[in-house]
Amino acid sequence: MPKSSPFSHGPGLKELHPSGFRQHLSPLQHRFYETHLREKARPEHLLYHGLRELPSPFLLPDLEPALELLKEFVRTEKKILLFGDRDCDGVSSTSLLGGFLKKIHRGELILKTSNEEDYGLCPAALDFVKKNKPDLLITLDFGTTNHVQIDELASLGIKVIVLDHHEIPERIPDCYLISPKRQDSNYPNEKICTAALALKFIQAYLYSSLEEYNRATWIGDGNSLFSGYLIFRGELLFQGDRQEAESKFNLSIKDESHTFHSSFPEREWFYHEFLKYPAILEQYLQNFDLAAIGTVSDMMPLYGENRIIVKEGCKILFKLNRKETKHREGLFQLLQLLELSDKHVTSKDLGWGTRTHDQFRGKDESYGSRSRSFIGGKSRTCGVGSQRTPKTQRRKKRKNQKKSFQSGRFFKTKERTD
To answer: Residue 126 belongs to what H/E stretch?
Structure first.
């Protein structure tokens, strides 16, 4: 491979091999890797990424008991309230989980995001919850710091599940707190948004409907006749001798044969189990659109898992924009307003398109208006302010062009003075 000049982009990631790849990087790529990626992800995970590389949702703390609680409340048709933050991640995650529950829950379901209230379970938000008296409250993008308010709700008989990605305080609420930042979390990635957590929660719910849910899998690792991997719900429980594994874990085990192409056999097998059920897999994949919007809008780092979520989400949004799928009519209308390319949808479209639209309207509209831009049925549900959106985007574009022009003049002047 020819040596890169200091000013070239260097080879594409797909051209590189994980073994000894750094020697082929351009100076810019090498600098970026050393300062941003060395401690954050394995090189091969950066180079070869896909759905089979995604960690299991069951590595998140409290996910399994929260899942069983939600399934019980869905089965018994209890009253469920989803309450999310007002920002794009909060709206995306609330719309994501709310849209899923609308398909499976026959009981009363209330969806809300904060509007004029302060952040979190402030007095106004707490009054709203008390007034509606749900059997189950699920907070999205807040709740980690609201232990006092959650204790009060618990005293009223209201069960609480918190999906949040913010920093963990000294005292956490007495509820099911699904957060990758908890000290007892086994999840490998702390920097994921709440919309990604909602996606994980949905994935776990779908997986719990499969016969593989309560069964472990034994797959030989090729080291010896009796050596292999013991995998349960996407988690690698044991690698080594089969007899030792059986003595340590009291699980129903099924033998399978599989040739792994990933550095994470447990992740690859977890995805492989979804491949057996195309309809379930399709339901899972359709939720990447809002997870991608939340990831980009909340400015999560786009490497590893987040990169995969955004890449797959852009694929779904592209299909939606071309009417190849019709699972979110409101979001389709929003995509039409943004006049995206008919060839692809990119992370830039997610950041400067959907996020701008949401924030433009988020200051003076309730969840009902904002969320229907994502999951609504009729075009009029995303019509409030929508006609101003292209004009606002053009004004923003002209402003950015002006800044770019001024910056260009500055550097040209600096070159002459130097």
So the answer is: helix 123-132
Assess if residue 217 is contained within a domain: yes
pTM: 0.78
Which of 276, 297, 331 terminates a domain? The answer is 276
CB-based contact 217:232 (threshold 8 Å): yes
Residue-number span of the structural domain to which 41 is assigned: 13-48
pLDDT tens, 11-34? 555 555 454 556 667 777 777 766
How far apart CA 308 and CA 329 sit, in angstroms, is 24
Asked whether 298 and 270 are in contact (CB, 8 A), the reply is: no
β-strand partners of 397 = none
Q: What is the reported pLDDT for 327? A: 83
Tokens 């006609």, located at residue? 387
DSSP output for 240-299: EEHHHHHHH----EEEE-----SS-HHHHHHHHHHHT-HHHHHHHHTTHHHHHHHHHHTT
End-to-end CA distance of the chain: 36
CA distance 376 to 365: 15
How many Cβ atoms from other residues are within 10 Å of residue 416's Cβ?
A: 7
**Are the C-beta atoms of 273 and 212 separated by less than 8 Å?**
yes
Amino acid code (one letter) for 278: P
Q: Which of 260, 276, 292 is the last residue of a domain?
A: 276
CA distance 202 to 288: 11
Overall domain count for the chain = 2
Please report, for residues 67, 140, 220, 237, the alpha-carbon distance to residue 98 in angstroms, rounded to integers and kept in the order given. Answer: 15, 11, 40, 33
Which of 116-120, 133-137, 277-281 is least confident?
A: 116-120
Is 249 part of a structural domain of the chain? yes
Residue 218 structure tokens? 């034994």
pLDDT at 225: 86
